[in-house]
Amino acid sequence: MTKQRKQIRLGAHFPGVNNTTVWSDPEAGSQISFESFRRFAQTAERGRFDFLFLAEGLRLREHQGRIHDLDVVGRPDTFTVLAALAGVTEHIGLAGTINSTFNEPYDLARKFATLDHLSAGRAAWNVVTSSDAFTGENFRRGGYLDPSDRYTRAAATVGAARRLWDSWLDGDLIADAQEGRFVADPHAGAYAYHDRFFDIRGRFNVPRSPQGRPVILQAGDSPEGRDFAAANADAIFTRHSTLEAGQEFYRDVKRRLGQFGRTPEELLILPGVTFVVGDTDEEAQEQARVIRRQQVSGRTAINFLEQVWNRDLSAYDPDGPLPDVDPVVGTELLTQGRASVRRDDALQVARRWRERAEADNLSIRELVIETTGRQSFIGSPLTVASQLNYFVQNDACDGFILVPHLTPGGLDPFVDKVVPLLQEIGVLRTEYSGGTLRENLGLPPQAAAAEAREEAS
């Protein structure tokens, strides 16, 4: 019996600050101007992508007391941008990265339910966590949350938000809509939720939204992150560098779903990947080499190295060999915020990097270029389309979240040249078929998923 070909799911990642986007390129646009967001979203919708994915951070990183050189472009508020994009798009999903550590369930649930109504069922929440005091200084609670509690609080936050979203359901009772006005039901919106993090009760003031609940995304490769995704998420945003690594991750996460009364169809695995499309494979490879050197300047390479060594390395030549001194551990980190490596792993990382640099005769900059790159698909349109399809059909993933190196025009080569090839072989839609993001992603309806979990329990 011939195995049915899987449909490729696609997300488009509008970056926050990172080491992927080349903001110095003359074709790069603004990180804050709405025109950048509009063009990016409409290009993704033209390519029949499933959703647009906004990154967000709650504080810019600092390196040796100064704003990190990759973090100078700013991060506008996610909900504001997504609400505006709902008015200039019709089908594409609107996914926002919102922190579960420093936000309250009621406020989150209300904003996402509102976005789902405004967009006619296209809202998605990428749930992220934080445990560092540096980020926490922006908030009343500060950064006291123990790292071991970050996924526990995240699960509680999602659980409480779901209780609020479902509060307009009471058994078979659903508040009816008539001419845009919701009929008051005595049970509609009433909720109560209690655990070690939250003790809340009241009446939720946003009626049931088109999807019932927004689609939940989560990013994390750790065992805790995999369990959290298996229990709570509709899609997991991950990264892996080879087909074999992707297949191992795919098998592991899909296997975990059964522990939580879920089926493999209820969770999509979508690695974040970069791409370079050229007229030929050779041209694309040359473009990729140029892009990687643009992404990692000499200063950036030294900054990355200092995150591991935790010492001032400004005197070292980025085009020279790695330092012969060991990392400093057990002291305050030079980089505050999101760092490349935990301090207790620094000695092991430094040893591995030295071994690789020696084996391949790599300079500091060359090593950083090699070790910080995402999984990339590089080649002619046919080569890239074939590679993407091979990964999906061989269960390394269910699709991809594309991270272009240019904003906002970086998706254009993919949409213009690769998408038609995927559509031609029947693995990517030619038109949107569903009315909501959940339907377009091929996820089970909320009611069916809930019944399956009840039967499993």
Topology (elements, then pairings):
Elements: E1 9-14, H1 34-46, E2 51-54, E3 62-63, E4 66-67, H2 78-86, E5 93-99, H3 105-118, E6 123-128, H4 133-136, H5 150-165, E7 169-170, E8 173-174, E9 177-178, E10 181-182, E11 190-194, E12 199-203, E13 215-219, H6 223-232, E14 235-238, H7 243-257, E15 268-277, H8 281-295, H9 298-309, E16 335-336, H10 346-360, H11 364-372, E17 375-379, H12 381-393, E18 399-402, H13 412-424, H14 437-440, H15 446-456
Parallel strand pairs: 1-2, 1-18, 2-5, 5-6, 6-13, 13-14, 14-15, 15-17, 15-18
Antiparallel strand pairs: 3-4, 3-16, 7-8, 9-10, 11-12
Helix pairs in contact: 2-3, 3-5, 5-6, 6-7, 9-11, 12-13
Give structural notes.
The protein has about 450 residues and is of the alpha/beta class. It has two domains: about 350 residues, TIM Barrel; about 90 residues, no CATH class. Helices cover about 40% and strands about 15% of the residues. The protein has 15 helices and 18 strands. It has an eight-stranded parallel barrel, surrounded by seven helices. The radius of gyration is 23 Å and the shape is globular. GO terms for molecular function: monooxygenase activity; oxidoreductase activity, acting on paired donors, with incorporation or reduction of molecular oxygen. Belongs to the NtaA/SnaA/DszA monooxygenase family. Pfam families: Bac_luciferase. This is FMN-dependent oxidoreductase (Nitrilotriacetate monooxygenase family). Keywords: Flavoprotein, FMN, Monooxygenase, Oxidoreductase.
